[in-house]
Amino acid sequence: MFKLLSAYALSLAVMIAPAAGAAECTRLVVSADSDYAPLHWYDGKHLTGASIEIATRALEALNIPFEVRYVGPFHRVLKAAESGEVAMIASLKIRPERQQYLAFTSVPLFVNPIAVFVARDRRFAYGGWKDLVGKRGAITLGNQFGGGFDEFMRDNLIIETAQKTYMNFTKLDSGRIDYLLTGYYSGMIYLNQTQQQDRFMPLRPFVSETDNYLALSKASPCIKHLARINAQLETMQKRGELRAVLQKFETDLRIESTAAIPPLR
């Protein structure tokens, strides 16, 4: 009996040992949507953007080892965070389904306005969400918008999905869809970089103007750093550092101020 118990204890120790090692946060893996400039995007070599810079500045200040990793389109990033492969997403909106596997920081990084983009020669009168009913729209796979719009979209709108923003602009150009929903910043940067401002335009009002946050995977041992990261973000916010980082990327990428978009009459 003693031998059987000893053998069982030994086998149990062998099974537990790897789990204990896996519970250490030796390197915090940061990822993000690869198609959402200036907040976060993949430049062909690295993930970059305002969200990435804020996250890495906070981690460096706290001496937390990290790695910024490109893992593909945003829906793959979400899956990687759900499993714990990605420890931090920088950044995204708080949604109930995401809170099942992500713990969000209490400090918002910045407001992320969501716009309706249309072809200039097929624009339509728009004063709010109800004006989208009956029209064909599109979003990037994995995007959510907050402010109650996701529920309205699910219950009332005709929506297609694509993996990248440019794919939806292609659909819009061909007339396959009537509008697309994406971040104002990322949509304008795409139009600036492809010199298509004369073909497409954003409408006002925005469909939502809610905050983006950093989020830590509940499946990652690095979640133990959440309180420290919150405290560091509070310090950065008080210094005006969060807004300054976003403004730097806005300037570099020549984004028109959101206040400059007139409502469509």
What's the quick description here?
The chain has 265 residues and is of the alpha/beta class.
Helix amount: 25-40%
Identify the quaternary structure here: single chain
- Which parts are unreliable, with pLDDT below 50 for 5 consecutive residues or more? 1-21, 257-265
**Largest sheet, strands/sense/barrel:** 9 strands, mixed
Give the overall average pLDDT. Answer: 88
Count of helical regions: 8
End-to-end Cα distance, whole Å, is 86 Å
Cα-atom radius of gyration: 21 Å
The 3D shape can be described as globular
How do the SSEs run, as a string of H and E? HEEEEHEHEEEEHEHEHEHH
Strand count: 12
Secondary-structure content class? alpha/beta
Question: Can you give a write-up of this model?
Answer:
This protein is 37% helix and 25% strand. Mean pLDDT is 88; it is low at 1-21 and 257-265. The strands form two sheets. Strands 1, 5, 6, 7, 8, 9, 10, 11 and 12 form a nine-stranded mixed sheet that branches. It has a three-stranded antiparallel sheet with strand order 2-3-4. The chain has helices at residues 2-22, 50-61, 74-83, 149-156, 165-174, 184-194, 226-238, 241-252; strands at 28-31, 35-36, 40-42, 47-48, 66-68, 88-92, 102-104, 110-119, 136-140, 158-162, 179-183, 200-217.
Observed structural traits:
single chain, 265 residues, alpha/beta, nine-stranded mixed β-sheet, three-stranded antiparallel β-sheet, 12 strands, disordered N terminus, disordered C terminus
Question: What is this structure's SSE topology?
Answer:
Layout: H1 2-22, E1 28-31, E2 35-36, E3 40-42, E4 47-48, H2 50-61, E5 66-68, H3 74-83, E6 88-92, E7 102-104, E8 110-119, E9 136-140, H4 149-156, E10 158-162, H5 165-174, E11 179-183, H6 184-194, E12 200-217, H7 226-238, H8 241-252
Parallel strand pairs: 1-5, 1-6, 9-10, 9-11
Antiparallel strand pairs: 2-3, 3-4, 6-12, 7-12, 8-11, 8-12
Helix pairs in contact: 2-7, 2-8
